[in-house]
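Recall the central idea of this unit: under ordinary conditions, the amino acid sequence of a chain determines the structure it adopts. In this exercise we apply that idea directly, starting from the sequence alone.
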Amino acid sequence: MSEHKPEWPEPGDLVMATIESVMDYGAYANLDEYNKRGFLHISEISSARVRNLHDFIREKQKIVLKVLRVDIEKGHIDLSLRRVTKRERIEKVKAWKKDRKGEVLLRAVADQVGLPIETVYEKAGPIIEEADGLYESFETALKEGPEALTKLGIPEDMAKAFAKIAEERIHIKMVNVKGVLEIRCMKPNGVKCIQQAFADAKKAQKSRSSKIEFAVIAAPRYSVDVSADNWKSAEDLLDEVSQAVIDNITKAGGQGSFKREKQRR
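Accordingly, the structure predicted from this sequence is:
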């Protein structure tokens, strides 16, 4: 949370700022995360020639700036706009929005457990910010359950509140990958062996953040459908679960093969 950040930024830091006033020689900006004011000189607005500052910035505009110098004794903070790359700007805005969402969710947790927000942060904030990040901890609770937070040292009732709020307010976009298994077992109990091969493979790969579905296409062909929160996880899980089915049926005296379907992203 912003009130728990260091009192002053450091040179090189990227900060979210709101332009307070624009003058001929530069602009003053409020640093949203620090409750401080800094100065943006006209020479740090753009690498191109600046004839009119209002062509680049305006009052009440929220922008990403880079800290150049900090003089704590004088209370001065010098800022730059031209030294912020496009990538840095995108990543900072993304992180800032996540921090804001995390703070809103943490307040919801405080309401859930009936404690002041300061108390909740004191018990959980430093732990989760060091481990994953405030917003990311809610995603972890959603994917892995409250146990993932209690392992870090967060009280059980609070961890359950994290998971409950995450489930109510966070939607994780899933991606889907598919493949086809050909599974055969000519033994008298072959059907049961095949069913067990699929069941054991699915059980071994059980995860809150992914979903595995098997379906009969036409024996001996079976579809494998895997959903996860990112492409790499989905593709890795598809390979793992398919290989597990093949290994299981092979041990039971059958045979199998797998073919991945081409994916459109």
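DSSP finds seven helices and nine strands in the chain.
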